[in-house]
């Protein structure tokens, strides 16, 4: 992908520079003083004539833009946004370019024979230790699998590219101990200084050309790679090195490691804090990544309203990736448990749902009657007395303790019961209750979360409990004039027999765009995952130095890099397998039973269906030797796309840089894939006469 920050669309000056003067295309004279916006411009394949005249794709794209772009009537001082118009020229992921144009200019483009479609700018979002042993990578006494690290040499020589919001390059998870140099095919670069990048973190780049226009303006300095928590967490999950003594607030002590601890990592920053991820920057990063030599792409971002595949950057870039043998693991989204909320729906992507891990940070609430409820707490203060404390609840407001002045005279020395929600986060509630002198807080989760708790590091003693336990607690408080309770901290507990449970937030199918194929594809660990961060969330002071380097996060953002790392292991063990073969191996061997050997359930204890769980929970040991494999090549998806009703131009833009299709549309829409797929879906309409 070529960045043409210096290319100016000024009268015909650009064309004169790019073309012999006798072939120059005169710019259309029209008034383009309207508002400039970023558009993804999809164009047809260049004719042989175009290829003879223009030696690069970027110069051809620049000439197309110049043919409709006229700045003669603009005053650049009054409109700095008109200075640089061509933002990205894509080589691999789509046949087109990103540019800043007006609505009038788009109208002019639509008259040209090279024009296919103009898509307005769109912002995507991030889908926000123990798990190697849980999924059976270590070969130690594992949860219920054997080990695979020995067979795959822990992913040595594989390169995992991570699209995210930045990375803390100096984190111990990215230490180069035990790492060899990157393979000779690696063509990427590191925008950190040379002392930070090493044989573990071999690449770090920032893609911001599109985002900076709408966020701050053209005069911004170059945006360096940020040291942020989300990208650090996902990268260390996929391929972090071994870090003995890793812990979160003194809990979960152990040796942290990514799924492929000997794989190399390359970070492509496409998201910016509180600003989201711009579509055209995502395309640019994928455009370069597939050229730079990555083996796997880990993408923990998306949009459940991304629309059809012809305008979705993950779908477009993912197709090019699999054409080049690059496996793509993507997050399913965090809009569950509602149906048809799944993101990243293209059939050539691995779409990953989130599930629990069986590790809990147990905090027990013991009522004055002796009844106990097990909850969780990430911060478990040492030597906290297990004595009974008076209980008080938010009775003036909505039960969420969102009023900072609420009951200030009543909370000192008491345990305050609050519902999650309201105007304040749980951390802020705890902070103001701590300042008011409360002994602690019991935080009741929302009903839709069911049995799943996401504990935080509060500044005061806290127990987070599930909704049903909260109902029983409130009933007890109404039954007596002097309710009391104790908080008993039990540390980290492993081995929940109901594990894995599909996370309530994990987006569900069926797919809106892709109704012939099951989505999500598979489930992986995505609840309360311990991995590296730049700075942990929460208000409690870390009790030891490594506690300041690790934190728990939950989301399909955490599940996708687990599968990315496992894909790297499988590819290392089976270097000739295609991305489709690796995906098939994972899906056909996935577990559908939990540790009780009963069907995996959702957060409410009901049997999880395929639209929440996909094919099942990842089993790397079985995936190494699946027996039957459903293999696909990139062209096998073309009839499927035609069956979905895409035009020839749209199919051609999706499958770029493959040769364009012609007359490929099926006479009737067939939404079922015409190829070997491990999980096709067939809808059945009952006979009305029966």
List the helices and strands and how they pair.
Blueprint: E1 2-3, H1 13-18, E2 37-43, H2 48-53, H3 57-66, E3 86-89, E4 96-101, H4 103-109, E5 115-120, E6 123-126, H5 131-134, H6 149-152, E7 159-164, E8 201-206, H7 211-215, H8 229-239, E9 243-248, E10 251-256, E11 264-269, E12 271-272, E13 276-278, H9 279-292, E14 296-299, E15 301-302, H10 313-323, E16 327-331, E17 350-355, E18 360-367, E19 372-376, E20 389-393, E21 415-419, H11 426-435, E22 440-444, E23 462-465, H12 467-479, E24 484-493, E25 522-525, E26 529-532, E27 550-553, H13 556-573, H14 579-588, H15 610-613, H16 620-623, H17 638-643, H18 648-655
Parallel strand pairs: 7-11, 7-14, 8-11, 14-16, 16-17, 17-25, 20-21, 21-22, 22-23
Antiparallel strand pairs: 1-3, 2-4, 2-5, 3-4, 6-13, 6-15, 9-10, 12-13, 18-19, 18-24, 20-24, 26-27
Helix pairs in contact: 8-13, 9-10
Keywords: Glycoprotein, Hydrolase, Protease, Serine protease, Signal
InterPro entries: PA_domain, Peptidase_S8/S53_dom, Peptidase_S8/S53_dom_sf, Peptidase_S8_Asp-AS, Peptidase_S8_subtilisin-rel, Peptidases_S8_3, S8pro/Inhibitor_I9, S8pro/Inhibitor_I9_sf
Region (Disordered): 657-690
Keywords for this entry:
690 residues, alpha/beta, Rossmann fold, Glucose Oxidase, domain 1, 3 domains, disordered C terminus
Question: Into how many domains do the coordinates divide?
Answer: 3
Beta-strand percentage?
A: 15-25%
Q: Total number of helical segments?
A: 18
Termini separation (Å)? Answer: 58 Å
| Counted beta strands | 27
Work out the helicity level: 10-25%
Strand order of the largest sheet: 8-11-7-14-16-17-25
For the biggest sheet, the summary is: 7 strands, parallel
CATH topology label of the largest domain:
Rossmann fold
Radius of gyration: 27 Å
Overall structural class, as computed from helix and strand content, comes to alpha/beta
Q: For the record, what CATH class of the largest domain applies?
A: Alpha Beta
What is the overall pLDDT average? 84
Shape descriptor: globular
CATH architectural category of the largest domain: 3-Layer(aba) Sandwich
Low-confidence stretches: 2-32, 71-83, 140-146, 217-222, 665-669, 684-690
Q: Identify the CATH homologous superfamily of the largest domain.
A: Peptidase S8/S53 domain
